[in-house]
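Training component of the fellowship. As part of building independent skills, the fellow (R.M.) carried out the full modelling exercise for a liganded target. The chosen ligand was KG4. The inputs are recorded below so that the supervisory panel can assess the work.
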Amino acid sequence: MKVLGIETSCDETALALIEVENGAETKFKTLGTVIHSQIEEHKPFGGVMPILAKREHARNLVPLLNSLLEKTNLKQEKTVEISDEQKAKIEEILSRENDLVQVFLKFISTVSKPDIDMLAVTSGPGLEPALWVGISFAKALSYVWNVPLIPTNHMEGHIVSVLKEGQNLRNFAFPAVALLISGGHTELVLVKNWGDYQLLGQTRDDAVGEAFDKVARLLGLPYPGGPQISKLARIARDENLKNEEIKLPRPMLHSKDFDFSFAGLKTSVLYLTDDLRKENELDDNTQKIIAREFEDAVTEVLFKKTKLALEECGAGTLIIGGGVIANTTIRNKFAELEKDGITVLIPEMSATTDNALMIAIAGYMKSLRIVPMICPDIKAEGNLGLS
Ligand code: KG4
Ligand code: ZN
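Fellow's submitted model of the complex:
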């Protein structure tokens, strides 16, 4: 069975095609992935602009689908008659996406239906204008190609991003705890089974990736700030730069729940950088020391809460997903849990940021629980939860 995943929840437009074998074992193989990152477009604004993201997704989806079909040898050029009735229906499905209608109609009238058995699209959480583009595009494809479509949760995508090609998906050591750390989320989730999730705790204010981005901005670094902060922090470590006076708080480190809070940490950096600027002391080395101290503070809080969640839930497996797990310090710290007998599953670097492979996998797993339909009524849900 071939599943096409479609992801447009934030600033990456991504498509991926997997082939799933569902016999004695359930395993997948990646047939192809394509992605267009909008980071350069959003950089001048210091963050993701929803309307710009929507326009860019609409511009890139058809060219990306074309290149994915070419890459996977599934593209067959052929003149396909689109009846007036079909055209009207496609226009209705794509009524929110003016930029997409004409390119879409042109494309589907020149290629025959590829050998694809199911579509999976992110329906939330994310930026609603961005989500709608992917949903409308997926629905239009489902309609013209008569292929069932399943709405997929982006955060479930980050959970399954740790799964590997060829691994038997039925043979997973539940229960697991998932730590989801991205630009929009910081959550600890108990994973009882695929599709059976319980939220243990989450951030009460800023997400951890958002905190990285805001602190980077305070230091005058470009968006996205996570990689910038981690670059400076690494130099501070390698060069053993020190300043005993630079100390940041570890918010909620000792609270007995699984919630987080990063807004105060960011504010502490704001006061610190303001004071240092006044004294003309915010030099390059001091910036690096702040970056390292911030990274250490975040890592310590994430680590302590997650360890507690693993213990309280009696879970032997830890899953970590989301863009922030690209951070080497955080990766290395969590790998230490292996010594305690915990299986630590961290996605490969290429699977840490938003991608469609994780959506294809999550969509397939969901289709084992819920029957997908042709052109279903899917709505974008910006705040869609996991449980
Ligand atoms: O999962 P993701 O690609 O998109 C969302 O769903 O939000 O996560 C993006 C976030 C951004 O805030 C970015 O700064 C952060 O992940 N990030 C990092 C690193 N690389 C990306 N944060 C810390 N260290 C990194 N190396
Ligand atoms: Zn994400």
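The panel noted the following from the submitted structure. The chain is about 40% helix and 20% strand. Residues 284-313 form the longest helix (30 residues).
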